[in-house]
Write a structure and sequence with these properties.
single chain, 2 domains, Rossmann fold, alpha/beta, 35% helix
Length: 336
């Protein structure tokens, strides 16, 4: 998925730096990714550690991580279920089509009419199977994660769902085909939570805590509200032109609350090693983070410069390269 703050391109850097600190042998370590997003970092360590604990407050993230992190054994006949879902007759009365496709009269154009119907058809069948106990939890989350990723590929947006595009773009005209969200197999069991990170931290413990909170005022619940709607598939009245639903508002996106929330998290963490990914455009400065983390043990910092691409609203919508710094703040915590 094209995801804000994704660590896909930085995963090798993160793993290399973490191994330098904690050692090469992670086989008996518990690794926690408490702001998991799409689960890239947890997936990077899944094969190496004793257990991954994954968490995120957003429902779409919970679904993705229930599949990619918690699923670790082969699921019988999963490809046959994918094929069945790809060959269903389309329904026209579903929630996504009625509220997020132009042909329904909603005046919203997040998906083509045909793809909106496909999302409803597939999502309804997955729900039916689950409600009737025809599929296991493991298969349910595999199929639902497959739908989230496949729907995202044909969304008529500029990568986030805060708004839809006025005209249907080429990729959004492609027919949605459900592709399997294949996960890695291994012998270890893992845990996935859907909780507020500052509450969960009081109830878990381990060896390595990785933190990747929101950097700025962009709320993930708003930017990815439609993925939450597909994941939940509940009934509500979409608000405004964008069809927004009620969403979680993170304290890490609020300038007046982020410092207090961050220190609370560090103070309550029962993990020997804590790693924080943050960049030079965040609400907390490098010095802010250092001041807080240094209270609780031995602090250090590494950084990496990398290029990213911003979309500038020019007539030609040119993509211009922009450099930013990824900071990896490191704490070896005292008194554990």
């Amino acid at each position: 998925m094209n995801y804000i703050g994704s660590k896909l391109k930085l995963s090798s850097f993160l793993k290399e730096e973490i191994l330098k600190v904690v050692g090469e042998d992670l086989s008996q370590k518990v690794f926690c990714d408490i702001f998991a997003g799409t689960g890239i970092v947890g997936r990077t360590f899944k094969q190496d550690v004793k257990q991954v604990i994954s968490n995120d407050i957003e429902k779409y993230s919970y679904v993705l991580n229930k599949n990619y992190i918690e699923n670790n054994e082969e699921i019988k006949d999963k490809d046959e279920f994918i094929e069945k879902l790809n060959n269903l007759s389309l329904r026209e009365d579903g929630f996504i089509y009625q509220n997020y496709c132009m042909g329904s009269g909603s005046e919203r154009q997040y998906f083509s009419d045909d793809n909106g119907k496909r999302i409803d058809t597939i999502r309804s069948k997955i729900k039916e199977w689950k409600d009737n106990d025809e599929i296991s939890d493991n298969l349910y989350y595999f199929l639902l994660a497959s739908l989230l990723e496949s729907a995202d590929k044909v969304a008529n947006t500029a990568s986030v769902y805060g708004a839809f595009l006025k005209h249907i773009k080429k990729s959004a005209l492609k027919e949605l085909v459900l592709s399997p969200a294949d996960f890695e197999l291994n012998d270890n069991s893992h845990q996935v939570f859907h909780k507020d990170s500052n509450e969960l931290i009081k109830k878990i413990e381990g060896d390595i805590l990785y933190l990747d909170p929101p950097y700025n005022q962009r709320q993930y619940g708003g930017n990815y509200h439609l993925l939450n709607t597909i994941a939940l598939y509940d009934v509500f009245t979409p608000k405004g032109i964008t069809g927004m639903r009620h969403y979680n508002r993170s304290k890490y996106c609020k300038k007046l609350e982020v410092h207090r929330s961050f220190e609370d998290l560090i103070e309550n963490a029962k993990f020997e090693y804590i790693f924080l990914s943050y960049n030079n455009e965040g609400l907390m400065s490098e010095e802010d983070v250092k001041k807080i983390m240094s209270k609780y043990g031995k602090y250090s910092l590494v950084q990496k410069e990398y290029k990213r691409f911003k979309v500038y609203k020019t007539k030609n919508r040119k993509h211009k390269p922009s450099c930013t710094y990824e900071y990896l703040h490191i704490l070896k915590k005292n008194n554990l």
